[in-house]
Amino acid sequence: DVKVTQSSRYLVKRTGEKVFLECVQDMDHENMFWYRQDPGLGLRLIYFSYDVKMKEKGDIPEGYSVSREKKERFSLILESASTNQTSMYLCASDTDRDRNRGQPAYNEQFFGPGTRLTVL
Amino acid sequence: GESVGLHLPTLSVQEGDNSIINCAYSNSASDYFIWYKQESGKGPQFIIDIRSNMDKRQGQRVTVLLNKTVKHLSLQIAATQPGDSAVYFCAENTRPYGNNRLAFGKGNQVVVIP
Lengths: 120, 114
Known about the structure:
The complex is a heterodimer of chains A (120) and B (114). By secondary structure, chain A is an all-beta fold.
């Protein structure tokens, strides 16, 4: 059974704290993603990584950073948490392994259970 | 905690009836589409996908229809069950020749009435 796991289901932090959200996948996927999900706004991409030590900004990277030191692990870091970062955070992964050069990829993303972060 | 289902369009359906959930996508270059289901307190789960060279694909109790002319996607659930109550998202792959990037719809809440 393929799995994406996140280190915490619920987290409560104070404004100004440094927060680490960890994500691990056991599918040997190249690509990993961090989203936040807010009512009425849907899923918004924060950062993604397509290889170890590689990262690319998503649509809303401000206030966040990421780390990908190992293929299976992708960390989201809030350097100084603020109340507007209270949200549900979702990690996902997928693979390009089935894609031949020059051919498009048709791959679903597998999601973790989410971390509900509250910043007070 | 606050549910992802708040502020979403809601479809209420009687148990046993068929459900149809609609989604408009934005990018005419997208060539791959996915439907996800998200139950309360859980991450999204894959339901079914379709490539742009198809206009219909069937799974177990689910059918996805793709109309590229009007950039519209729909998910049909046959004989809806209480376990189908969830938020349903469509997603499109906006970078088919680059690193995968999915763009997600805001979702539709489905409530099954027993």
